[in-house]
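User: I'm preparing a small set of examples for a lab meeting where we compare how different chains pack in three dimensions. I only have the primary sequence for this one, and I'd like the structure in token form so I can line it up with the others. Please keep the answer compact; I'll paste it straight into my notes.
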Amino acid sequence: MRPTPYLLSTTQADCVGLPFTVSPQSITAIHHPSGRNATMQKHIFQPISDLNKLQRPMNREDRLKTIIANLEKHEQDVKTSIVAEAFQKLQTARQEATDTDKKAIDSDQPVDHGRLPSNLRAPYQQGSGDPCMPHIDPKQLAEAAAGQATADPQLAAVLEAFGHLREYETLARRAKEPYIKALERQRAQ
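Assistant: Understood. Below is the structure token output for the 189-residue chain.
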């Protein structure tokens, strides 16, 4: 079986933009700097088109422009892949939440809401709570709320996607930087 050609874009800045022939089995051997190997690898390693069909750049400036253009196109492809995966996770989380809500509605007992309005109108006074309960620090309450928010599968999918996008943008910027500087130096000559 012939190895599939892949483009290694941002895991090794000195090799970015160059075509590599990598077998799918060896992809797992390359480590991502953040440790999220499998998640980012499936986005970063994208099949590339046949390089024999492409015209070779005539001079160094054209070569650098081609490399930068290929990196930018690959960056967009990776971002699209990350967003598509996040959208799929979000749809799955929404479906699971809908299924859970249906189960909860079916199993709930009727609740007497008669005293609820009067309880909501009562003003809270510090110290009027249960004396056996410890004082709750507002900062701890905010941290607990943030922890609960990230436990929400829908929000977790979105936050994960933004984290991947931010991380990849940083890596892509660092990968393109040497080529952009080389192009600027070439134009200055």
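A couple of notes for your slides: Residues 5-101+142-188 form one domain. The longest strand covers residues 5-7.

User: Perfect, thanks.
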